[in-house]
Amino acid sequence: MTDTIFSKIVRREIPADIVYEDDEVLAFRDLNPQAPVHLLFIPKRPLATLDDAAAGDAELLGKLLLAAAAYAKREGFAGQGYRTVINCNEDGGQTVYHLHVHLLAGRRMHWPPG
Ligand code: DGP
């Protein structure tokens, strides 16, 4: 896959407000927040879209979700609630082709999404 802005954030070539990091996952604040809390959890190893994920990526995908859930618990808003979203390809609203889990919280979410 081609290099994206998120790979540059992983390599610390451009700044980001990083809130969590482990060997495989990085999380940082979204530049264009859609809620009081809006974070992006990304794999350090680039994977363009959810559509590109294979069976061998199952553990990594689980780690992204668990990292988001653990963050929500740590920060104290898990009980109140939050939303996780993975946009995939054009109709899914994906704009950065490095797979990421949005974690949104701090306001009531609406359903269905627009
Ligand atoms: P998506 O539409 O699902 O591909 O979400 C991409 C998100 O990435 C979008 O909410 C805005 C955010 N974003 C784009 N460029 C940057 C950046 O350079 N830094 C940060 N922190 N977020 C970015």
UniProtKB/TrEMBL annotation:
Residue stretches making up the HIT domain: 5-114
GO MF terms held by the record: hydrolase activity
Q: Where is this motif: Histidine triad motif?
A: 98-102
Fetch the Gene3D superfamilies from UniProt. HIT-like (3.30.428.10)
Q: Which PROSITE patterns match?
A: HIT_1 (PS00892), HIT_2 (PS51084)
Keywords linked to the UniProt accession = Hydrolase
- What Pfam families does the database record attribute to this sequence? HIT
Query: Catalytic residues per the record?
Result: 100
Protein's recorded name: HIT family hydrolase, diadenosine tetraphosphate hydrolase
- UniProt organism field: Rhodanobacter denitrificans
